[in-house]
Amino acid sequence: MILGQSKRIQTIGVLAVFSLTLILIATGSVACGQKSAETTAAPEAEKATALKEGLNDFEGTVVVASEKYFFLKEVQGIDILVPGMPNLASLEGKSIKLQGEFNRERPSLLVANKIQTAEAEVFARSAEPDFSDYVDLKERASYPALKFVNILTVEAWEGKGKGKIFGKLQKQTVTEGGATKDVYRLNANDDKGKLVGAVIIDGFTDYASYYFKKLRLFDSFWFYLKIKESTDPKVRLKNKDLFHADVVCVGLF
Q1: What is the pLDDT, as a whole number, of residue 123?
Q2: Dihedral sign for Cα atoms in the order 115, 121, 126, 132
Q3: Does the residue 220 lie in any domain?
Q4: What is the mean pLDDT of the chain?
Q5: Which of 7, 122, 129, 150 could form a disulfide with 83 if both were Cys (CB 3.0 to 4.6 A apart)?
């Protein structure tokens, strides 16, 4: 009897240890998965730096700069708008001191008030900021994902005014009138991933160009489009160009 009870106790013990091992393995797998996701997180998904209302002071290195915007490595999750500074891109790679103004109405944006390099003060704000091309996360949510059926179903884009497509930008250099120029297209697929046609990209806002540089490690993302005129139906049937658009923002979500 005692021997039987001992065997039962041993069996229960072995099952308990086995169960505990499975739990630890599962927990470890989840933790590793979370760590991997955090390690590979996109720049725009990083945790934002805490800011206070009004003026904020930072020191850091400029990673990316366009005509109006730049990204400071030490100010994660925040875009910095510089109103009226020529040659802003020349700050790339430089260490600076920044004084910027934060307004909770634009939680991912800082407006530069002063910028100083090791040599001198290179910017002091003297003009009101222009927010006309800035696209915040709330506005992004108002762009519907365009669903394409075929090249003749113009309802997929006409009348919408704006929309977004996930894809990779294609560049082609053509010659017109003896001069060369770059033509950009964005592939448009149906819900099964089959190519329907292409969107002709006429232009990019500075905010979109800035994000192209900021997301330089990626080649495919969401393109937020200002939809313009459709192509002529005969042209559309011939070369599958659907409509013209301007890119106002790009992002990983």
Answers
A1: 96
A2: negative
A3: yes
A4: 84
A5: 129
55-75 tens-digit pLDDT: 999 999 999 999 999 999 899
Average pLDDT in the 152-170 region? Answer: 95
Same domain, 98 and 162: no
For the full predicted model, state whether its pTM sits above 0.85. no
Please name the amino acid found at residue 188. Answer: A
Query: Who contacts 134 (Cβ-Cβ below 8 Å, separation ≥6)?
Result: 79, 81, 106, 109, 207
CATH code, domain carrying 118: 2.40.50
Task: Tell me, yes or no, whether 144 and 220 share the same domain.
Answer: yes
Within-domain flag for 112: yes
CA distance 36 to 199: 35
The closest alpha carbon to 223, from 196, 204, 195, 242, belongs to 204
Taking the C-alpha atoms of residue 51 and residue 110, their distance in angstroms, rounded to an integer, is 9
Does any domain span residue 14? no
User: In sequence order, what are the residues at sequence separation of 6 or more whose Cβ sits closer than 8 angstroms to the Cβ of residue 248?
Assistant: 133, 135, 162, 205, 207, 208, 224, 225, 226
For the residues of 142-171, what is the DSSP string, one character each? Answer: TSPBP----TT-GGGTTTT-EEEEEE-EEE
pLDDT at 44 over 80: no
Could you tell me the residue range of the domain that residue 114 belongs to?
Answer: 54-124
Q: Between β-strands 79-81 and 69-72, what pairing exists: parallel, antiparallel or unpaired?
A: antiparallel
Nearest to 86, CA basis, from 63, 54, 115, 56: 115
Is there a single domain that holds both residue 66 and residue 164?
A: no
Q: Which two tokens stand for residue 32?
A: 């590793």
